[in-house]
């Protein structure tokens, strides 16, 4: 049940990112990378049924995945990857929570040569577009792998 709910949300977020990129709303698309990554990581974390603080992750999820009980995104990534990606969530958290470091991601060049902050489309930053698309593709591929693992283990009888 958890996988069905979380994986469908992951796909929906990836499609939302795709549409935002197509329309030129790169900042909004970039902000959605964290929830995309988080859903994918949660699905993997739960499918592996990791022990977390003396309880299984699935039990914590079934109990409402409460803020003070669930592991952080970085903690889940550390557990899954055996600490291979320390600090990987720093940028995503910055974008999501709007701290000062996030401001560079919606900066644009103005006609007079100065920089400003876009409140709309960013249509002249192919590197940012590529980064968003690459991260979205990577998490989508990870989600497909999780789907294959989780749903191939399910016995379906008609």
Explain this structure.
The structure is a single chain. The chain has 158 residues and is mainly alpha-helical. It has one domain: Four Helix Bundle (Hemerythrin (Met), subunit A) (Up-down Bundle), CATH 1.20.120. The chain is built from seven helices and four strands. The strands form two sheets. A two-stranded antiparallel ribbon has the order 1-2. The longest helix is centred in the C-terminal third of the chain and has 27 residues, at 126-152. It starts with a helix and ends in a 6-residue tail after the last helix. The mean pLDDT is 93.
What is the secondary structure topology, with strand pairs?
Layout: H1 2-23, H2 26-31, H3 33-48, E1 51-52, E2 55-56, H4 57-62, H5 73-81, H6 90-97, E3 107-109, E4 115-117, H7 126-152
Antiparallel strand pairs: 1-2, 3-4
